[in-house]
Design brief:
By secondary structure, the protein is of the alpha/beta class. It contains ten helices and 16 strands.
Amino acid sequence: MKKTTPIKVGIIGIGRAGYEMHINELANYRNLFQVVACCDIDAERRKLAADATGAKTYDNFADMLKHPDLELVSIVSRSPDHLKHTKMALKAGKIVFLEKPIAMNYAEAKKLKALDAKYPGKIFLRHNRRIEPAFQHVREIMQSGLLGKIHLVKLHRHFFQRRKDWQTILDCGGGLLNNWGPHLVDHAIRMVDAPISEIWSDLQLISSLGDAEDHIKLLLKGNNGRVVDLELSYGSAITMPQYVVYGNRGALTCDGEKIILKYVEPNYKFKVGEAERTTPPFGAVSYNPEPIPWVEKTIEVAPPSKLGMGDIYKCLYQAIRDNVAFPITLDEGVEIVKVCDRIRKNTAYEYPKPGNIYKFPPENS
Ligand SMILES: NC(=O)c1ccc[n+]([C@@H]2O[C@H](COP(=O)([O-])OP(=O)(O)OC[C@H]3O[C@@H](n4cnc5c(N)ncnc54)[C@H](O)[C@@H]3O)[C@@H](O)[C@H]2O)c1
């Protein structure tokens, strides 16, 4: 068996993501990672982290960066602090695993690119939904040609939540576009699978208690003619399938667990190949009597990679130690931020107080 050299990791931000995701995921890969340091401004959170990992804890990030063994830093602080913390960690010679949103806007994303040029190969993006099983599997079916040429993809993540935390407040870096947005905008860009030629978007505030958007509608058109129609919403009490894909030889829907397929076998050739200018006979309801030999089946979501979202740290280990390509590149992450910026600029959404129209970015930013 191949010998592994565990990566010594420190985490900044022992919040919902730092504690419930990063620490839990790292616990599944104790042979690959050792959590040696954790930083949070909250003493209770530091105690939780120490109890769960045995790591040394810090109330100050600059102090944590002086830990002599630290090789990798996971940045799980609030979104507006991501760039600042990345810069500090890189300057201290560390590898960075950066949570989404990787930047608050495209100007910040360009600064990340500059940092990458200065410290090459040190920034990895935690876009863990890139390896979400249903996304991987649906995309693999799309690319296989089973459904023919794909013309329309509908992506839905519908919830109804009256959230009231900082993720709902604009000047805290909140809003659904910074929260779930980067994951789903990434999915939408991948599923266009061509350079984007048109973008239409709408942001609204429906049910959350802050002042930031909690409902996103996005249409992307690629120069391959394909349209991806995304709805990501905390204001949708009735849900739709996560994926609906239409091609010229079939379609699929997927709820995240199962994929329902309806398609014509790829090697089947239709007999009637041309339209006729003559008047059709009476009773020819479909104007083409040739039957369509549909195959209909339901399969479990099971992507060939067998990776689940919790395996992102395994991918990170392989990238750092074995030089295996990481699932998402910095350029892809930067493109997501660029599209999010366009979405904000496209939209002026109405704040509940009459006449108060918010424009992005907020006037004082
Ligand atoms: N990839 C994902 O699936 C995913 C899921 C959830 C959150 N996130 C991202 O993770 C980040 C954190 O989100 P969260 O839900 O855990 O937030 P949270 O508010 O629950 O946690 C943030 C933590 O950071 C600490 N903190 C704040 N400023 C600090 C500082 N200067 N130094 C040290 N500690 C500091 C807070 O005390 C808190 O414990 C966000 O950027 C969010 O977008 C990603």
